[in-house]
Design a protein that fits this description.
This protein is 80% helix and 0% strand. The protein is an all-alpha fold. Helix 1 runs antiparallel to helix 2 and helix 1 crosses helix 8.
Length: 241
Amino acid sequence: MSSSSIVGEDFTAFYHGWLMNQDAIFEQLESFLAAAAAADDDREQCGGLVGRVLAHYQEYYAEKTKAAEEDVFVFFASPWMSRLEQSFLWLSGFKPSMLFWVVESSMEGALSEEQRCKVGMLRAETARVENAISKAMASAQETVAAPPILGLLKRAEELVDGEVSELDAVMGDLKQSMGRLMGNADALRGSTASKILEILNPKQAVKFLTAVMRFQREARRWGLYNDSQREATSTLTNNLF
């Protein structure tokens, strides 16, 4: 079994367990918001819930970073996700700018003018950094698509010693570039979320994180359903013909 397959299987097992823990956290968040709807804000409890959510996501990124040291390329395919979830991926994760859509949809006009101004400035800065990372990613991909390297990849099983060394060197450089870019993207995801939380008050922060988890859960639920339907249709077609 290739190292890529092993990394993929190990991370898939971790991811499934991580999602189970997330389900429990999500239920706790929803229960708190339902109970707090007619009660005064509990800053201490809000802070505890936010801390638990952040620790949960930090666990994910720590495991991801460790696994990526073995095989960074598997994270750009993310086989543990449904096709729908994969369609949202940007450098192996969600695009940070998506968080602003979550803010708008979950706050329902509850932001103050000062908060809206801060969110707007953060959105612009996030978009600027996103574009810079995307351009760097495109440059890394162009290196592999260059005619000499593309030719080596097409003849991978027929390469002589010198060509093998050349291809190994190129792929090693690409692995480093992809790892660095993924790290930059993950850092932007984390910093954007942290800065949004700094803008929100404690109860708004809980609502925001609950909405983030709800979106992730719904995307996975629909993605798995669509994949199962597609697989069932494919199996039926193969049996018929």
